[in-house]
Amino acid sequence: MPREIVTRLLHAIAVxxxxxxxxxxxxxxxxxxxxxxxxxxxxxPPSVRAEWRARYGxxxxxxxxxxxxxxxxxxxxxxxxxxxxxxxxxxVGDAMPRTLLLVGVALGxxxxxxxxxxxxxxxxxxxxxxxxxxxxxxxxxxxxxxxVALLAMTWLGxxxxxxxxxxxxxxxxxxxxxxxxxxxxLVWHLALPAGVLALAVASRVARHQRAALLAVMREDYIRTxxxxxxxxxxxxxxxxLPNAIGPVIALLGLALPSLVGGAVLIERIFGWPxxxxxxxxxxxxxxxxxxxxAVLLATVLAVVARTVTDAIAEYVAPRRARER
Amino acid sequence: xxxxxxIVDQLQIDVNALRGAAPKPILRGVSFAMQxxxxxxxxxxxxxxxxxxxxxxxxxxxxxLTARGRVLFEGHELxxxxxxxxxxLRGRRLSxxxxxxxxxxxxxxxxxxxVAEMARAHGERDxxxxLRxxxxxxxxxxxxxxxxxxxxxxxxxxxxxxxRVLLAMxxxxxxxxLIADEPTSALDVxxxxxxxxxxxxxxRERGLALLLVSxxxxxxxxxxERTIVLHDGLVxxxxxxxxxxxxxxxxxxxxxxxxxxxAVRSA
Amino acid sequence: MAASTWRRLLDDRAARVAGGVLGxxxxxxxxxxxxxxxxxxxxxxPVALRLVAPSWQHPFGTDPFSRDVLSRVLHGARVSLGxxxxxxxxxxxxxxxxxxxxAVVGGWVDGVVSGLVDVLIAMPRLLVVxxxxxxxxxxxxWWLVALIGGSGWLTTARIVRAxxxxxxxxxxxxxxxxxxxxRWRITWHHLLPAVAPQLAVAAALALAAVIPLEAALSFVxxxxxxxxxxxxxxxxxxxxxLTSAWWLVLFPVAAVSLTVGSALILADRxxxxxxxxxxxx
Lengths: 324, 267, 281
Hints:
The structure holds three protein chains of three kinds.
Chain A: H1 2-29, H2 36-39, H3 46-55, H4 62-74, E1 80-81, E2 86-87, H5 88-123, H6 128-142, H7 145-159, H8 179-216, H9 220-227, H10 232-270, H11 275-285, H12 288-316, H13 319-323
Antiparallel strand pairs in A: 1-2
Helix pairs in contact in A: 1-12, 5-6, 5-8, 5-10, 6-8, 7-8, 7-10, 8-10, 9-10, 10-11, 10-12, 11-12
Chain B: E1 6-15, E2 24-34, E3 39-43, H1 50-58, E4 65-73, E5 76-77, H2 83-89, E6 94-97, H3 111-121, H4 127-140, H5 146-149, H6 159-171, E7 177-181, H7 189-206, E8 209-214, H8 217-223, E9 226-231, E10 234-240, H9 241-246, H10 251-266
Parallel strand pairs in B: 3-8, 3-9, 6-7, 7-8
Antiparallel strand pairs in B: 1-2, 1-4, 4-5, 9-10
Helix pairs in contact in B: 3-4, 3-6, 4-6, 6-7, 8-10
Chain C: H1 2-10, H2 13-35, H3 69-105, H4 107-120, H5 125-135, H6 141-150, H7 154-168, H8 171-178, H9 183-219, H10 231-238, H11 247-275
Helix pairs in contact in C: 1-11, 2-3, 2-11, 3-4, 3-6, 3-7, 3-9, 3-11, 4-7, 7-9, 9-10, 9-11, 10-11
């Protein structure tokens, strides 16, 4: 078992190294640098440009910059985000928890709702409940989430004013509110972006969970459970679900990268100041250290989350399968 | 004579018609009766509809199959009863032991809990008491070290032990009728004999009726007073087993008897 | 075995409807220049014909620049479905080739391919594509195909590798080997047809993943650039008029959702047909 952990760790490190290198190389191939917009005007003397570029190492050959960047990275230094006038670590330190909050809440809600939907569908297999929920979850996958976000923002936010349309906190003297009011305010702002993301997660989870449950429902031990005189709900929840949930958790791990990607769009639409919005701003400003850090950290997040879901899936896998 | 425990009257099972196809019958009008405490064998080749018969009695036919006719059990008209009424009878008054003891047990649940669940499904609120009665029953069903082994998962037990778990589960609530669907065909010969012995010991002790479904005349001959031979969805023989062995009337029954006769005679 | 899978699929009403929708969308995309009632980029009268509600003249209404939305959705299908189909073909071909190579050759080749899949599958695809697109500025549709397709072959490679390894153990392959057939002959004549249904599932799922990806990229302004119409950038134009001009959003969204939904249904029904369990249920 410890050996397995070591392999997984090495694996995760390899992933991050590959991603870091490829993003660095690709950005090197791209035109422009963070100072292009600010300094490359005709009225800026060449000496000033050279001075600023030298201060941040942009005058060095790409190979050496990569070595420096990688060396700094191993020390935990991510560089300086010129567009924010702060270190990358500070920017990311602010943004990352917000993204974690958004993705975590969406994942938790979506997973629970998705499993619940699948349970109802299995209980009423081939009846109207199954069909209606099946159509809804199909829609939840087929309709792009940025559009759901837009609709939610326009109607629930702007039209009916039920929820705020942007940001993660009320303006003005909100900072002076008592703690529970600030938490309530945060939940209120979180509702739309997390809800939209959770909807997308729930639809995908429900579709896979339903298929897995229906496959398990054909097993002999389900018949045994029914022969005991158990009610259909007990049969599904106590006997089918524990045997059907493992693959869905593993699959969720595989789908996590695309969830993180989806969160980027959602953050942009709702102005949620997390990693996604940071990435967009950094891209516009060509702030390479920040772009690199954002992509790298999103990858790390996906890798970590996947390792965790893999471990959970392994743990809940049917013992029989593990034995064979 | 006391009233019959089970009366099966013109039971018909059809495969539901798919688009265009005509419904295909599995049972074409099966009738027989059982007295309390009686042991009856149902003999038939594979595909003769014997497993469907067992499932129909419990109301566990897969959705693709439909049963028609009348099944009277302890005065309840089973095919017409509500789902809830049938569920209340399942496991408590009539229970079943399935053929494949590995796949018939939930791989993710400890066997003691699986047996105890039988009690909890029928109103036992106290989890600890249910588990204690389950362990007790496992011991009586011949599972050695029942209090330790009840905490094992199915794959940690041998085939014979798993079958004892299923048997303990079926007998826990003292049912009036036990249906055993090929209870031994997945087991080694020596274990087969042990399980059959156990089945009979329990039956005598509790006075329950046993419907033993098998394709194996040897198994039925050693245990059943009366044998019903199913062929092509119909009852072709319903006679005392001794009579079946000495003078089978129907050609199909004769074929089955001839196939195992040397073994039965030497036994 | 594979042949009966296709027959079961053809017997399946939901699969026929989904296939019909996809076929109709493809046909509309191909025929757009002939069936579109107007020029999709023409701005006849940005004042009088601005944001006209659907009418006989403009069945899907007009946009803020007085362009005909029906014509833009039809021409958008060319770009959106073209990019999607191209990216799907690229990713499925690449994935099938690499997955097959890994399974058939084995050894270090398998190690490299499997390792690569394991590493790359953890990358957030949309994020990386956005970063790349933004870094290189705007990209032509061809580059979009290369980027989206080139980043999507992983799941196909996984499926094909697993299926091939399974089939390589089976008796008919061993028999063919015993008769002296070469590895590549077996791959081409036995394995590939055997896994074709699974490959079709992968293709349908890839299509369902790629259409929204293009739409999302174009929606944030990083994909297909105006005046070229795509479903994503029609949505971008309509986003500001969600409450006043619903037709700007409804029709491109319907186009995206119908095609994605059909691809998903097709993948589902294909799986059912492969399992052949429809009759058991």
